[in-house]
Amino acid sequence: MNFYIIDDDPAIPLVLQQILEKEAANTVVGIAHTAQQALHDLLFMHVDIVLIDLLLPDLSGINLVQQLKARNDQSRFIMISQVRDADLRAEAYQAGIEFFIDKPINVIEVKMVVEKVAQSIQMTRQLTDIQSLVDGHLPAQPLPVNPHQDEKDRILSILKILGISSEAGSADILSVCQLMLDQQLSFREIDFHQAYHITDHEKKIMFQRIRRAIKVGLTNFAHLCMDNMGDEIIVERANLLFEYKNVRNEMLYLEGTRQTGGKTSLQHFFDGLVQT
Asked: What GO molecular function annotations does the UniProt record carry, in alphabetical order (predicted)?
């Protein structure tokens, strides 16, 4: 199952990710701290289950679910909350959530709720296939919501190797890669204002998130290179994503023999990531 987590408390998604990804079949494909970021990310992602905080800084979790449902989002929704107001909970269920998970997070409750929703998803898929047989058709093969899902899964695995799959900018990175794949664009050719309907200020914030994530990835990759000196595959990947000279400079910085680390280039990173 693919999961997406939305909570303005940075600690909550990390805790949930640790719980969810203990199951090999589960992957947290994105994390957001605002409703606006989630609305943007979920346009480009195939997600089975979305976990949403009830109280977000820019929009209530209930309103967010309503907006996602209005654009025919097929994900299932679980709400996270420390609020136990009966009217609010009734409103959330009416908006389309499946279950509540109470804060503070309880591992057993999370596993139980997620398992129930996952079973419901599987049952729905099986019933769809059975109905297709009754109607005289072959079992419906789920059409790929994302025609480049294999490429995207590969990119996500690279982000995990870099240790940045849970960074705030990882969802932005996946979204940009999706756009590049869908429209066969290089990074330089993307019109971010038109593609994402964002202002210059919002683009700047988005790029800041991405740059922070890529810098963390460069540092982690430099550590990986230090532990695997001479590995040709790692050197090749370093060239594709960062240019090896920058990885080398980061290694020297980490060793204390250089005052500044390696530099990162958004264009080089994205073009390399999409073609790896």
From this structure: phosphorelay response regulator activity
Residues whose CB falls within 8 Å of the CB of residue 45, separated by 6 or more in sequence, listed in order: 2, 4, 29, 30, 146, 171, 174, 175, 178
**Domain boundaries, given as residue ranges, for the chain:** 2-134, 149-275
74-118 per-position pLDDT tens digit: 899 999 998 888 888 889 999 999 999 999 999 999 999 999 898
Q: Tokens 């990835």 appear where? A: 217
Cβ contacts of residue 11 below 8 Å, gap of 6+? none
How far is 256 from 222, CA to CA, in rounded Å? 13
